[in-house]
Amino acid sequence: MPVTGRNSPCPCGSGKKYKRCCEAKEAEWRESPLFAGRFRYEFGSYGAPGGYTPSILCYKETRPDSWVEHFCLVKPDAIFDDEDIASQAAEKHLAEARALVDAGGSIQDFALSLRHEGYKNISDFRIVKNSRRLQSQP
After folding, report:
1. pLDDT in tens, the chain (138 residues)
2. CB neighbour list of residue 29: distance below 8 Å, 6 or more residues apart
3. CB 56 within 8 A of CB 125
4. Which helix (H) or strand (E) holds 29?
């Protein structure tokens, strides 16, 4: 994961310097334990024709071989006309985050990698059947 310099713009998009925005919060977060349980991630796209963003859907295992949608991450600063191109971007970012863990990084490094790519958690999402696309609830 690229290291954000203290005087660099914060990756959260606030416009503040990293040291005045998220540096302390992320340092604390790296030290805290994350939720127990099993999770899996799927890449896809979020939106509708004319505006797709890369998305990553997290599933949580509720009992053996039973998974429910836990949260959805989207990269709102990347909008594509083509659903497949948006999905390919999400696939690349998810692979890069997984590679960090495979190289000995922590789950916090995984999450921070996606955050630094610009992914944000959204609420009120729903899965469109027969598609990997996600849409917001009306």
Report:
1. 456 777 888 877 788 888 888 888 777 766 665 555 588 899 999 888 879 999 999 988 888 888 888 889 999 899 999 999 999 999 999 999 999 988 988 888 898 899 889 999 887 766 665 444 454 443
2. 108, 112
3. no
4. helix 23-31
Note the maximum CA span of the chain.
46
